[in-house]
Each structure stands twice: as C-alpha cells, then as structure tokens.
C-alpha cells in the first residue's frame, strides 16, 4: 500500500510534544548527555516520575479546536531511553514506574479529537545495554543485539495502538542505513501499518523531509519542526519565547512553500504545559481561524530568475504572499498608509477584501498597478491578510529595474546560489 500523503500535504500545521523523564529536571531533553549525569542516578529518578498533570485529552482538544492543528506527534522514547509506553523489553518505562501508558492516552485523545497520529521514537538509546556506542566499539558482540532491541521496540509501538499515521524516527547517529538495517526496519513498519508515512531519520530517504529549526521549502513533501522557545524538552530557564506574530509568519512560510509546520511544546515534569506556550498558541490559533483560507489549500509560491513569464515573486516591503489558483493573499505586517500600491500584477484583479472580515476594499487596477484603499486603523500586530481575487494565473513580478523589459530576461539576479529570498 502506497504511503498516504494526501492528508499530510493538506495539513499545514501539527503539534509536536517532547515529554520524558528529562522534563523533571527542567534543563532540556539532552540533559543526561550534555551534563554527563551518572546513569544509575538518572535511572533512579524514574521512581519519582509523576505525570499527574499530563492531560492528553485537554491538550489534543486545544490543538484541534483552538490552535487549528491537524495532526500531533509525541515522543514515545527520546534518546534517554525512558519509554512512555509499556515496553516488554525494559523496565525503564512510565507504566512500570507510575502506572500510566502515556502513549495510549495520547493516541486515544488524537482519535477522539480527529487528529492524525504520529509517534516519535529515537533509534539511539543512551541507557540500554548494549547501547549504540557499545555496538560501534565491539560490533561482533553488540551490534546485532542492539539493532534487534531497537527494531523490537518500534515493532511494539507499531503493534500496540491501532492505526498510526506517521513513524517519526530520530537519533540516527552513529550508523548509516546499513548499520540501522533501515530497509528491514521500514519494511516491518509498513507491513504493520499500511499507508503509514515514515520520515528520513533512519538514514534512508523518507516520505517527507524534516528541516529542524529552520524553514527550507523542498519539491518533496516536508515539514519544518520548530520549537516555541529554544528548547524541545522543558527548560525552566528558557524564556526566549517566539511571539504569535512569529508563529503565524512561520505558518505563512510553510504554506507558501507547500509544507507543514510541526510546532513543539515541552510539558513540565508533572505533565502540565507552560502557560506562555498556551497563550502564544491561543493567539496564533485565533488568527488562523480568521485567515485559514490563506494558509490551507494554497499552491507553492516560487520565483524563476530566468523566465519573464513564469513564477510568483514574493517581495513587498509591507508583507509577504501566499497563493491559490484564483487568489493572491498579502499578509500585511506593517501599515502601508491609506493607499496600498502594488506593482506589477501579471494577472487580472477583480476584487479586493480583508480576509478576516470580508470587508470589500475599493481599488483601481491599470497596467499591472493595483491601488487599494484600506480602512483606517488597521492593526498589524498580527498580519492583516488582504485577498486579491484574480483572473488568470496568479502572478506578481517586481522587476529589479524601474521599468519592465518587453523581452525575456534574467529575473532580478543571475546568481541564484547567492540569493536567499525565501518564501
């Protein structure tokens, strides 16, 4: 059965949840490795793991109804090796320490609120024996034993929870695809979960790309995985929060590049979600409810530097664009004055309105120059989306010169490798 990409290509927005034993220390998900903590002492912490405020139903309901997300991904096991599910292969699990299978709770909540389900699982494991380093140092003795353990754990999460939509691998060092026996691993996953999507973090090309910490559009399906501050797992001292303004611009960038935004929250050790995360996502979610048409169902915005008749230019000093087959959306991020002027449209414009309210805007259109009269007092703290209903292929082309040549020409700059216009 072919991977089910249709829903993924339409989703645009998902929730990533990084939660584990590391959350109890509040210094990020890599605390065990970064601080080289004694393994025995770290494992003893599991006896006190108490996710009494982890409420998957509340969190996934918020993700769906208030934040506008279409899927969610949970860390079933991060590199620390602590499993949030009931593994038969280790005692280092949440069910054996606190009596709760948090993966089961997450899956049930996703199904209840009609969210697609993704399970993250780290191939690497710092606390099992033998671990990846042992396998690397003494392959004859340890490699196959370690690989069998990894594959068996992934078999568990692919078997125990019904239909799963995404297998989200991570932690693929120190082996290549042969070392991880990745073809065998993917074949097992696909046999257990027909139609599932797998990412490329088992050292084989996946069904979608996962740029991390940056938004890099691709011709292949992709999602940008981003955090709300600078940490994936809960970090009590990390106050570098992204604003709702930044979040909705990331959404616009992903939409313009025909990709998804997978945005992370890191619950505290008790499972509660930091209030600042909720505030930001609530604000961004309210904006998305009003402007969803400019985010979902859009087509890729691109710019061809060498053909005067192809491509969507994305420059204006007031904001950036997304596109549909019959419309262009300008995400205004700064007040342009009473009259908004945009040049040069390579398509017709038959109506202009504010997307969130439907308010029609008077306009003049002649020879590619659009002049729009805007209402007074537009607040661009979050982008105000202006919709241009178009005829013909929606295109805008701002030539590098003041006038537009009448013959085919290099569009703006011949050295594409030196450009970083983004989308």
Descriptive overview:
With 423 residues, this protein is of the alpha/beta class. The chain has 2 domains: 6-294, TIM Barrel; 301-400, Sandwich (Immunoglobulin-like). It contains 12 helices and 14 strands. The strands form 3 sheets. It has a 7-stranded parallel beta sheet. A hairpin with a 2-residue loop joins strand 12 (363-366) and strand 13. Helix 4 (56-66) runs parallel beside helix 6 (102-112) and helix 8 (139-159) runs parallel beside helix 10 (182-192). The protein starts with 5 loop residues before the first helix and ends in a 32-residue tail after the last strand. The relative contact order is 0.12. The model has no long low-confidence stretch (mean pLDDT 93).
Note the topology.
Elements: H1 6-11, E1 13-17, H2 31-34, H3 39-44, H4 56-66, E2 71-77, H5 94-98, H6 102-112, E3 116-122, H7 132-137, H8 139-159, E4 166-170, H9 177-180, H10 182-192, E5 197-198, E6 223-227, H11 244-256, E7 260-265, H12 275-291, E8 319-324, E9 327-332, E10 339-342, E11 348-354, E12 363-366, E13 369-373, E14 384-391
Parallel strand pairs: 1-2, 1-7, 2-3, 3-4, 4-5, 6-7
Antiparallel strand pairs: 8-9, 9-14, 10-13, 11-14, 12-13
């Amino acid at each position: 059965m072919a991977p089910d990409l249709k829903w993924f290509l339409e989703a645009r927005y998902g929730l990533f949840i990084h939660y584990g034993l590391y959350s109890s220390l509040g210094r990020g998900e890599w605390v065990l490795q970064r601080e080289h903590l004694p393994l025995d002492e770290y494992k003893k912490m599991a006896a006190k793991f108490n996710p009494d405020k982890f409420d998957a139903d509340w969190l996934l309901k918020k993700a769906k109804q208030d934040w506008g997300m279409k899927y969610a991904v949970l860390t079933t096991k991060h590199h620390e090796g602590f499993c949030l599910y009931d593994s038969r292969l280790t005692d280092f699990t949440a069910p054996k320490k606190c009596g709760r299978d948090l993966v089961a709770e997450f899956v049930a909540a996703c199904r209840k609120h009609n969210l697609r389900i993704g399970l993250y699982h780290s191939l690497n494991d710092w606390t099992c024996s033998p671990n990846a380093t042992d396998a690397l140092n003494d392959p004859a003795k340890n490699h196959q034993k370690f690989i069998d353990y990894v594959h068996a754990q992934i078999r568990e999460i692919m078997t125990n929870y019904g239909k799963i939509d995404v297998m989200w691998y991570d932690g693929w060092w120190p082996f290549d695809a042969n070392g991880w026996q990745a073809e065998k691993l993917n074949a097992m996953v696909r046999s257990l979960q027909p139609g599932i999507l797998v990412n490329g973090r088992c050292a084989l090309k996946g069904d979608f790309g996962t740029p991390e910490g940056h938004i890099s559009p691709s011709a292949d399906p992709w999602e940008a995985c981003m955090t709300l501050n600078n940490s994936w797992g809960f970090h009590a001292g990390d106050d570098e929060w992204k604003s709702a303004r930044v979040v909705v611009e990331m959404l616009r960038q992903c939409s313009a590049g025909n990709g998804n935004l997978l945005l992370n929250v890191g619950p505290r050790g008790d499972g509660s979600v930091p209030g600042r995360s909720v505030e930001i996502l609530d604000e961004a979610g309210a904006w998305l409810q009003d402007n969803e048409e400019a985010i979902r169902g859009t087509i890729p915005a691109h710019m061809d530097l060498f053909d005067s008749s192809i491509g969507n230019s994305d420059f204006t000093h007031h904001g950036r664009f997304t596109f549909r087959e019959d419309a262009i959306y300008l995400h205004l991020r700064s007040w342009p004055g009473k009259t908004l002027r945009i040049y040069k449209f390579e398509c017709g414009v038959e109506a202009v309105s504010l997307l969130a309210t439907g308010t029609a805007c008077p306009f003049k259109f002649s020879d590619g120059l659009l002049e729009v009269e805007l209402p007074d007092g537009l607040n661009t703290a979050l982008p105000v989306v202006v919709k241009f209903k178009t005829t013909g292929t929606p295109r805008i082309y701002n030539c590098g010169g003041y006038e537009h040549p009448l013959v085919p020409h290099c569009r703006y700059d011949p050295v594409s490798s030196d450009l970083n216009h983004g989308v």
